């Protein structure tokens, strides 16, 4: 929707992880457009954040289960998906390949990067404000002073370790967002609530608000219940609840 701000609220932990990884990979892509040493530093910090998000030992099993669920779901009719046969076949093949990769690979995602001494040292130092200075890690400082070509080659090599997880995240979120039923709703005095069907295959909800509406939502979501409370923005003080009625678009993301 044009001229709107979209807020997303996941229903389960796996979708939360996917949204966090999507944001981190988008930030990495943005940083890759600048070849300065400072941007290389930013990219390494983001890679370390990716490793932290992927720390959970069950992440591959959960991804494989979700992909399997998506594969089953794609065999049922979904009018809102609007995928042609060629695209559907391509996605199906992608899901099968990713599922096979996650199931048959026993190591953690990004294990090679995780085992690198410099990365482990950086993880410790970057936990401190201003950590990672040249006196903390001379090797890291040396690497940052190498040519753009050398730094980019190393970064791309490390990012290659996350190719499968990134593809899985992009695929899961694409299908969830694609299969969305959107309805216009009204928040009375800044508040909206509704009961949900606990047996539905709801993965996430999306809220779209006109950019000219000076309000933002705080969303509470469970399998049974949804509530949305709008607040008037205030960067210096605690925001207060929005007092007027407002219209917004609510998207139910099923799969």
Verbal overview:
The mean pLDDT is 91. This protein is of the alpha+beta class. Helices cover 47% and strands 21% of the residues. The chain has helices spanning 13-31, 37-53, 59-74, 85-104, 111-114, 117-125, 138-144, 148-159, 163-178; strands spanning 4-10, 180-187, 191-195, 202-210, 216-221, 225-232, 240-241, 246-254. A hairpin with a 7-residue loop joins β6 (225-232) and β7 (240-241). It folds into 2 domains: 13-174, YacF-like (Orthogonal Bundle), CATH 1.10.3900.10; 180-254, YacF-like (Sandwich). α1 (13-31) packs antiparallel against α2 (37-53) and α3 packs antiparallel against α4. The strands form 2 sheets. A 4-stranded antiparallel β-sheet has the order 1-4-8-2. Strands 3, 5, 6 and 7 form a 4-stranded antiparallel β-sheet that branches.
How do the strands and helices of this protein lay out in sequence?
Elements: E1 4-10, H1 13-31, H2 37-53, H3 59-74, H4 85-104, H5 111-114, H6 117-125, H7 138-144, H8 148-159, H9 163-178, E2 180-187, E3 191-195, E4 202-210, E5 216-221, E6 225-232, E7 240-241, E8 246-254
Antiparallel strand pairs: 1-4, 2-8, 3-6, 4-8, 5-6, 6-7
């Amino acid at each position: 929707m044009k001229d709107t701000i979209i807020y997303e609220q996941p229903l389960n932990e796996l979708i939360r992880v996917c949204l966090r990884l999507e944001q981190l990979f988008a930030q990495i892509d943005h940083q890759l457009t600048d070849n300065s040493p400072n941007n290389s530093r930013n990219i390494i910090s983001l890679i370390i954040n990716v490793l932290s998000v992927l720390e959970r030992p069950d992440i591959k099993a959960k991804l494989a289960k979700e992909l399997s669920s998506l594969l089953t779901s794609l065999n049922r009719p979904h009018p809102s998906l609007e995928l042609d046969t060629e695209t559907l076949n391509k996605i199906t093949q992608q899901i099968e390949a990713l599922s096979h990769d996650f199931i048959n690979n026993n190591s953690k995602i990004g294990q090679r990067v995780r085992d690198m001494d410099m990365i482990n040292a950086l993880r410790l130092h970057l936990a401190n404000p201003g950590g990672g200075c040249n006196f903390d890690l001379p090797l890291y400082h040396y690497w940052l002073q190498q040519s753009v070509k050398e730094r980019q080659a190393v970064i791309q090599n490390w990012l290659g370790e996350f190719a499968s997880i990134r593809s899985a995240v992009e695929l899961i979120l694409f299908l969830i967002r694609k299969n969305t039923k959107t309805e216009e709703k009204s928040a009375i005095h800044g508040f909206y609530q509704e009961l949900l069907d606990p047996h539905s295959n709801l993965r996430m909800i999306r809220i779209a608000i006109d950019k000219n509406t000076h309000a933002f939502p705080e969303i509470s979501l469970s399998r049974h219940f949804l509530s949305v409370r709008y607040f008037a923005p205030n960067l210096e003080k605690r925001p207060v609840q929005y007092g007027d009625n407002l219209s917004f678009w609510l998207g139910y993301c099923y799969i």
